[in-house]
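Example record for the data management plan.
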Amino acid sequence: MNNAKGSLLGIIGLGVAGISGYLAAGPLSPPAGPVASTYKTLAEVEPRIAISATNTPGDADSLFKITQRGSYYLTGNITGVANKHGIEIAASGVTLDLNGFDLVGIAGMGAFDGINVASSTISGISIHNGTIRNWGATGIDMAVTMTRSSISRVTASGNLLGGIRGGYTSMITECAAHGNTGVGITATSGSVFRDCTAYLNTSDGIVAGSGSTLTNCASYQNGVLGFWALDGSTMINCTAFDNTDSGILIGGGVTISDCAARSNGARGIISAEGCTITRCTVTTNASDGIYAFDDSIIIGNTCKSNGATTANGAGIRVNGNDNRIEGNHCAGNDIGYSIDLPSNIIIRNTEAGNTNGWVIVANNQYGPIIDRRASTTSMVNGFSAPTSALGSTDPNANFSY
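Corresponding structural encoding:
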């Protein structure tokens, strides 16, 4: 027992001695030279510049002015004063985070913008995340910028010359414009509009310059057009509802698909020459549902109850040549299909419940038009019906039923 106890004490002693030797091995004096600070600078904590009278002082026509490239942010709301823009951007390569704050104009302030970019040499501007309202001109005016800029998650309302104006090749996403005098949202050629809404603006809702793309946008109760997409643009999955004039106006060579135009005060969709209009739903517009000129393809659309308040309004009206009208369905319109000029082809379409199904002038080409409105058919209860109820085997036949 004593030997075991002695052995254990010996082991502990050796361990303590080893630890003591290890602890004594390190240096006891601090390194030579001054002690370095470990705190972070303000620029490291917040590597952006606050909009303020010190950092971004204004001038004769602006409350605040950005003159150097960099990243800027608001620290509070901004209230306008007479004869001044809220923020003027006078440098390229600027990102401005509105930080959820509100830029609000005042009555009688004059034709000045919430945010203004006045030089055509400026590019690469990004503005996001805030509200801009009641300015004497435009909420955001970047119309003269020459290369791609972006505006996202901004709401512009109550401005006297329009909501948001982007420049060339702009990216405008998740923005809303409502109650502006003038156009809600617009940008010039080569721009992208995505997930935007325009409501109760006194002019057009959304206007896209040539070669632009619009996706998942909505335009509601605006004073003129819902959408105006200029030549060479693309529209996908957009909705125009209850606008005072037509829902959607498209220029030449535009592709529009999976869009809806409903209850607009004139036509649903108006297209210039050389367009492709597919899988759109056009309903209860005061005049024609779809109105097309030359050289277009109109395929797979649904046009219902158009023309109720305008004499001879058609589900689809073609006032041009060399169009292909195929696989559409028109129901409950004043006229189903009105083909007003020659040299078009009309195949595989259907109509039902229109006051007049077909008005086609001479010298058009069309598949047989089969009237099945009064036909009776046998009930089907099972897995087959060996006799066709269509009354035609022509694959290009058009049907009234």
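Summary line stored alongside the record: Confidence is low (pLDDT under 50) at residues 1-24.
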